[in-house]
Specification:
There is one protein chain. This protein is mostly helical. It has two domains: 78 residues, no CATH class; 77 residues, Arc Repressor Mutant, subunit A, CATH 1.10.10.10. It is 74% helix and 0% strand. The protein contains nine helices and no strands. The termini are far apart. Belongs to the sigma-70 factor family. ECF subfamily.
């Protein structure tokens, strides 16, 4: 697969992932662009791995987590912005829900990423662990803590119904 083919096939999906973890469409575009730029630099190696999208998705998630560690990053997602050109699906309805965004904004960046990869990207614990470079048991523990935090935030009924 050539780089241009990959971008055509998966570019919008990367922007949607960036939007879902960051809550900001401009930041999502930046994350996708950075991930694609880094993948392009070593595309010969990337295209030969088993799953190039997994590799690029990991770059995007790592960039987001690095971004949140910087002082200039604002943690509050701005869910009112709807990504243009996004393919509508049930996950978009969940992601655009105002109460869910506010609850997700209370989580740490890593907790938010774990929940997004699990419920929005529908990835299993092993794949999430590979993306984040941690153990599957850490993924489960992080998800458990994040869901417990969401339950404590008094949004339990509406959020739990959407996440289950």
């Amino acid at each position: 697969m050539e780089f241009e083919e990959y971008v055509s096939a998966r570019g919008q999906e990367l922007v949607r992932l960036g939007f879902t973890v960051s809550g900001d469409y401009q930041r999502a575009e930046d994350l996708a662009q950075i991930a694609l730029m880094q993948a392009f630099r070593s595309w010969r190696k990337v295209r030969n791995v088993d799953d190039p999208h997994h590799y690029v998705r990991r770059i995007l998630v790592n960039e987001f987590l690095s971004m949140t560690r910087r002082r200039s990053y604002s943690e509050a997602p701005t869910a009112e912005i709807d990504p243009q050109g996004a393919v509508p699906d049930h996950a978009t309805d969940i992601a655009n829900s105002d109460d869910l965004w506010r609850a997700l904004a209370t989580l740490s960046a890593r907790e938010r990423v774990v929940l997004v990869l699990r419920y929005y990207q529908d990835l299993d614990d092993q794949t999430i662990a590979d993306v984040l470079g941690i153990k599957p048991s850490s993924v489960r523990a992080t998800a458990s803590r994040a869901l417990a935090s969401l339950r404590e935030s008094k949004k339990t009924n509406r959020i739990d119904e959407r996440l289950s």
